[in-house]
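BUG-311 | component: ligand-complex export | severity: low

The export step for pyridoxal-5'-phosphate jobs runs without errors, but we want the raw record kept on the ticket for reference. Input record follows.
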Amino acid sequence: MQQKFTKYLEEQFSNPSIAKQYLIEENDILFRYESLDPLCEDTHQPVKGLIHKYDNRALIKVSYRCAAHCRFCTRIRQIGTADGDLKEEASIPNIMNYIKAHPEITDVILSGGDPLYTPKQTLLILEELEQIDSVKVIRIGTRLPIHNPKSFDTLLLKSVLDKIAAIQKKKPFIVLVHVEHPDEITPEAIAVFQQLKQTGATLLSQSVFLKGINNDLQVLKTLFEKLYWNGVMPYYMYRCDYVQGLEHYVCDMNEEIAIMTELRTMLSGIAYPTYIVDVEGKGKIPVPLGFWEHTDITNCTDFDNNKISLL
Ligand SMILES: *Cc1c(COP(=O)(O)O)cnc(C)c1O
Ligand code: SF4
């Protein structure tokens, strides 16, 4: 079945590595993992739309809406639904009150969905965060420069970029672009990177290991170089989360380690992201590379000192 589908993708699409991120043969979905929320986000949500898992950082889900639906989305349980829409009169003030009441939160991340897909709400949230002195750094995670670069010409998105430019004079602003494959970095996407850079924001990237898409030394070397050369510094390379229904995309961890080890010998340090696994409970844990002897990747200790079995 899978072979037939792969053949179909290769015949129908000019770039099967991109097509595979959005299309999957339904009969191939494995459902081997137990949880749709292995990172336990829903249990770290003190108010609707805000995840407070790490003391000094909080993540706002601006909505569950996104310009595209990646089949490997870690939030596939929510994405594309209206359930996450934040209401101007209720959810946003609740979130801001929580952040003000917790001055230990110094770093706020706008996520979703894609915060730039709902620029109106994002603008409101940025205006509020700008005023909160205890918030020292603001980040936005987005894949819109890849999914819909043209939308950056709209007035609404331009007003978000203007807001970023204004905030960035007072506190560091980081745009985290989600990129999976070098072929996604089109001239149009590069033009958006330039537009984003003109705001003065720092551009970082995040990517996920995806089987049959980017679990390849040359593909990742090209990806990280292309990002670096276009002013985007690779920040995180994630192991795919163990979300039910995403089994299809999860790579062999030893193969990932071998690739990341080899890449470390080839790339500039700045072009090399931290390879991490986000575990159930608390922790984005750096994976030991192949330079060390006797590492055990089947077990790790999370940020709360809990033992986690990984495989
Ligand atoms: C990833 C994440 C963060 C940010 O983690 P960093 O390691 O600082 O990039 C914050 N909150 C939540 C809930 C996250 O998942
Ligand atoms: S862009 Fe991000 S939020 Fe949107 S579907 Fe893809 S992984 Fe999920």
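Assignee comment: Attached the raw record above. The pocket of iron/sulfur cluster (ligand 2) is lined by residues 66, 68-70, 73, 75, 79, 112-114, 143, 178 (CB under 6 Å).
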